[in-house]
Design brief:
Layout lengths: L3 H12 L7 H22 L1 E2 L5 H14 L3 H10 L5 H9 L2 H15 L3 E2 L5 E3 L9 E4 L5 E4 L13 H7 L7 E3 L3
Parallel strand pairs: 1-2
Antiparallel strand pairs: 3-6, 4-5
């Protein structure tokens, strides 16, 4: 969570005069509560790691566009129809325990209790120069260095993190293959 997303409203709250009728304080406190609730929801969410990019894409598309129920998706996967071929292959590769886990994953994903990990990126500012990757040291200082993570230095970033640092860095992003 970005501390400034909580600190800015908290500072704003502190600047509201005591004789305020309560409306300003109410709305600021509501913003802080929403931010904290959003963070709690993220912490409680399961991360689905055992899915290929194709399987992730099919499951996301099935949820967003095609299947109104989990049962319809299960039937489609079992019979290899409606553009769920990667999920069909995963189903037939798995043993019984794997299939049960896949069913739980799909249900949790459909109901918002699970998500796929966010794509991470390296940011290389000078092509071919191994010492030109964006890094953040343990004190939060930006710098350039190797993409190899040393200690608690950060070298991998989500797209949102890169944009928050500087949107001009987006063209320099390279997908991290995990």
């Amino acid at each position: 969570m970005n501390k400034s997303r909580i600190m800015e409203p908290a500072q704003e709250l502190a600047s509201v005069p005591d004789n305020d009728t309560g409306y300003a304080k109410h709305y600021i406190l509501e913003d802080i509560e929403n931010e904290l609730n959003e963070k709690l929801e993220d912490k409680n969410m399961r991360i689905l790691k055992s899915y290929s990019k194709a399987e992730q894409r099919e499951l996301e598309e099935a949820k967003d566009n095609g299947f109104l129920s989990v049962i319809a998706l299960f039937c489609s996967i079992k019979h290899d129809d409606n553009n769920c071929h990667a999920l069909y292959e995963k189903y037939y590769r798995e043993d019984t325990n794997g299939n049960n886990q896949m069913a739980k994953d799909i249900i949790d994903f459909y109901f918002g209790d699970a998500k796929f990990p966010e794509q991470k990126y390296y940011v290389q500012l000078i092509k071919g120069n191994e010492n030109s990757y964006l890094t953040i040291d343990p004190d939060g200082i930006l710098g350039l260095g190797r993409r190899l993570k040393i200690g608690s230095w950060k070298t991998k970033f989500t797209r949102d993190e890169v944009v928050a640092i500087d949107p001009r860095l987006v063209p320099f992003m390279e997908e991290v293959e995990e």
